[in-house]
Amino acid sequence: MQTISGRSVAGRSACTARVANRARKVCVTRAAATVEKHEEKAVGASWQFTQPAGKGLGFYTGAEDGYLYCDQMRVEDIRHKVPESPFYLYSWNRIAHNYAEYKKALAGLDSLPCYAVKANNNFVIMKQLAAAGAGAVLVSGNELKLATKAGFDPKRTILNGNGKLPWELELAAEMGVNINIDSEFDLENIAAAARKTGKKVSVLLRINPDVDPQVHSYVSTGLASSKFGIRNSHIKWFLDEIRKEPLLELVGVHSHLGSTITKVNIFRDAAVIMCDFVKMIRAEGFQLKYLNIGGGLGIDYSHQGQVLPTPTDLIDTVRDIVKELGLTLVIEPGRSMVATGSALVNTVTGVKTNGSKNFIVIDGSMATLIRPSLYGAYQHIELTKPHSTPVQTFDVVGPICESGDYLGKDRELATPSKGDGIVVHDAGAYCMSMASNYNLKMKPAEYMVENGSLRKIRHEETLEQHLAVFEGL
Ligand SMILES: Cc1ncc(COP(=O)(O)O)c(C=O)c1O
């Protein structure tokens, strides 16, 4: 359980503690302007939560002043410029840095890095990642439509999912997207889409290597009992069916073990198993090209300086296997690309105490960011400026009419006042993309800091837009 979260300059000063704890690790990385520049700096980078004020990259505490920064800008200053609250705030340079780390890690291998759009489908972020050369992994026809509009090359995308619909498969076939086969009925539907469009379709078999990713059951996907992927015992049946269909070309195998994985040996174990499948399938006469190991690398949500595997650790653990079999390595990172590059910025509505519990009530909620309510996920919470008020233990909760509406439990924070800024960190993945209109909360605006300037990258939704879906009924 996290114990240091607030910023205080008196008493049990959380800010001072953080600065002292991390001063020895201060990183002097200055935000670079381009993906290429980040690439140079990405080698061996371990993330730092305290950096020189105004000179760091991503979200960090200013070592000299205790304010929270996004790249060169104080989040407190941004709050005063932005009319909406809550809002998502991104550091493009941090996201570019994360992508650059993957590119660097893949050096020397034939590879296809595909961004998992489900993590964050902000159109501006998608366009910028497409422009930086990423491929994409998609889980719906609408994601596919948006990805092509954003500039992703369909031939460098993969359509995934256990319940792909005929129209989605036809669109994918038409566009030349690679499609994962997930089940017997999915294969039938893909073959039907190929026949209907008259297009040759490149397919991958999604195989469950049955390796336990040791993560929350909601984000575990690669076990034999998972709803995803084919029955391994039927693999011969799948190969025979594919052979019968001249419009289908089997180009690879895919596995995705789960998300928030913190040990790379898990990827290694799965890759070894997948290689046996590759050899077996090749022995059946198929020319497999791709080994897709999915996404899943975790991040340090705790902000406790956990040493987690980097993209280089991940790729190096499977490098020899990929080389030995002459395969192209496909990876599908989502969380580790975008999560750390964002925070949800909220305003304190008030502070209250009931029984022995202290609450900070904020304007963000489970409608804006549902991971804590949905699967008890921990996301670090901080005030945006230094405080000299007492540090207390708080539950940080939203205004939604549900007791399960919380952003953080038992957080030690300096006591804030009404109107103060408070952020939920690492909110770039599976946060805005899972936001809802529950209690008729409108989905929030999104802003991005890019090379020192603030820009809006999504408008807040309005009640008028909500009412429009009932027009004329
Ligand atoms: C098939 C597939 N690929 C990639 C990802 C991205 O995973 P992560 O965001 O953990 O990297 C997911 C998400 O769970 C997925 O289902």
UniProtKB/TrEMBL annotation:
GO molecular function: diaminopimelate decarboxylase activity
Coiled-coil ranges from the UniProt annotation: none
CDD domains, per database record: PLPDE_III_DapDC (cd06828)
Cofactor(s) needed by this chain: pyridoxal 5'-phosphate
Enzyme Commission number(s) from the entry: 4.1.1.20
Modified residues (N6-(pyridoxal phosphate)lysine): 118
Domain Orn/DAP/Arg decarboxylase 2 N-terminal: from-to ranges: 94-339
Gene3D superfamilies: Alanine racemase (3.20.20.10), Lyase, Ornithine Decarboxylase, Chain A, domain 1 (2.40.37.10)
Catalytic reactions of this protein: meso-2,6-diaminopimelate + H(+) = L-lysine + CO2
Active site: 401
Any single Gene Ontology cellular-component annotation: chloroplast
Residues of the Orn/DAP/Arg decarboxylase 2 C-terminal domain: 340-428
Gene Ontology biological process: lysine biosynthetic process via diaminopimelate
Involved pathway(s): Amino-acid biosynthesis; L-lysine biosynthesis via DAP pathway; L-lysine from DL-2,6-diaminopimelate: step 1/1
Transmembrane segments: none
EC class of the enzyme, as a word: lyase
Keywords: Amino-acid biosynthesis, Decarboxylase, Lyase, Lysine biosynthesis, Pyridoxal phosphate
Assigned protein family: Belongs to the Orn/Lys/Arg decarboxylase class-II family. LysA subfamily.
Function: Specifically catalyzes the decarboxylation of meso-diaminopimelate (meso-DAP) to L-lysine.
Annotated protein name in UniProt: diaminopimelate decarboxylase
Organism: Chlamydomonas incerta
